[in-house]
What we know:
mainly alpha
Amino acid sequence: MSLIDAAQVIERVGRARSARDVKSLVSELSGVSAVVLFDALFPVAVREQGESSGPVAMSAYALHALNPPCGLPIDDAVASLLPSWDVSIEEVPWYLAKQFGRDAVLAAVGRLRARQGDDAAMARLRTIEYWVGGRTPGA
């Protein structure tokens, strides 16, 4: 088990430049504690992409590929996507579907929809349904 911390995980993920780098990234991070991987990757993967957001897409790719156990209950995990998740990064809903199952993710979306009034959050919930509603790659 490697003694890499969350900041080092994100630093390494930040050096990856394209999806072609995911295989080597996964290889390098495979010995890192699953708790550290989740704690490092998930909070970055659910952010909006931008200059100060860190390696959002690469964090999502690594999260999906490495598949560390989710450290949150399903409703909390899905709710984490609502504030600023970039809806074009389908790996995050796919990761949740691998962790909890497609039906559990869709049920969480339904429960969260009943409590939402925000248009942006509702759009993200619809997008989560879209990404997990069909075939889930890697699930």
